[in-house]
Amino acid sequence: MASLLLVPLLVLFSSTALHVTSSPSQSASTVMASSDAACPSDVEIELFPFIRVYKNGSIERLKGTDTVPASFDAATGVASKDVTIDPANGLSVRLYLPPAASAGGAKKLPVLVYVHGGGFMVQSAAFPTYHRYVNALSARAGAIAVSAEYRRVPEHPLPAAYDDSWAALAWAVDACAAGPGGSEPWLAAHGDASRVFLAGDSAGANIAHNVALRAASEGLPLQPGAAIAGVMLVHPFFWDPSNTMAPELEVRIRREWAFTCARPDADVDDPRICPTSAGASARLAAMPCGRVMVAVAEDDFLAAKGRAYHAALVASGWRGEAELVDTPGQGHVFHLRRPGTEAAAEMLDRVADFISGA
């Protein structure tokens, strides 16, 4: 994330509707509704480097618009495919089947439900960075991965991303429990519903946390024996009032959160972004799994927020095991930005080992 251009949020409640719905497959140059929304003076709101909304309602995504198709990856032996799980709103997931599925005979594999980042605004399950990462993670952990393609803001303000990711989790668990002949053969044949993991990075980690708490409060739509075995939050997009950051960054997070909720009065004391707000102990103590991993990076401006989350979870009375992975000398989502580095390889191993139980 880079610095934010501070502009009014009046667009959120203006009479001009956001009438363009851009799919993840559209590039930044084709998201525009018309060519007349091209002058800086026509910009109503800009959240750099993510998005611009123009006065005519057009939306321009500035990054994360490239996509790659699902495929077979010869280097890892992982096969992937896209599956629509709710035709009514176009909700889909990208599935990853590791070579362990054929090598293990009748042995069931853990299931990873992964939620991508992007400030709730950009990127997708088909974005090359995420396709590469989840493919590598599926191979390394020997897990079937379900990468959620949730709806993004501003066309779909929160809680759309939470609801879609919850739907992806419920669908994956039901598909595992369906048995031979089920609607999704990869999960029916190989998925172990008793070893489901939730994970995400940045805004995706925020979503994974909120989906986990929804499972705790509502009860999972699971078959007997199904369970969330662990939750992994990598560089989570959280707020915490007990630690401070540069004033411009505080303003930035507040403005991004208001934009995400489509409410200029939305505040960061909302437990969805501030899991350490009032009443946190009771919520966190109900975390519906036995293990949680929180990863932060020393040079990430969100690191203190992630550490505060981990500390609050430990102090909440939750009876599980909470691991904090604190990487020195690295910035936000370094493992995605520089996948060939030693630090990225180590992070991949930590996450994979958390899933495989190594």
Automatic annotation (TrEMBL):
Entry keyword Membrane: no
GO MF annotation: an example: hydrolase activity
Q: Which organism is it from?
A: Lolium multiflorum
Q: Where is the Alpha/beta hydrolase fold-3 domain?
A: 112-335
What does the sequence similarity comment in the record state about its family?
Belongs to the 'GDXG' lipolytic enzyme family.
In the record, which residues are listed under signal peptide? 1-17
Q: Which InterPro entries match?
A: AB_hydrolase_3, AB_hydrolase_fold, Carboxylest/Gibb_receptor, Lipase_GDXG_HIS_AS, Lipase_GDXG_put_SER_AS
Descriptive protein name: Alpha/beta hydrolase fold-3 domain-containing protein
**Does the keyword field hold Nucleotidyltransferase?**
no
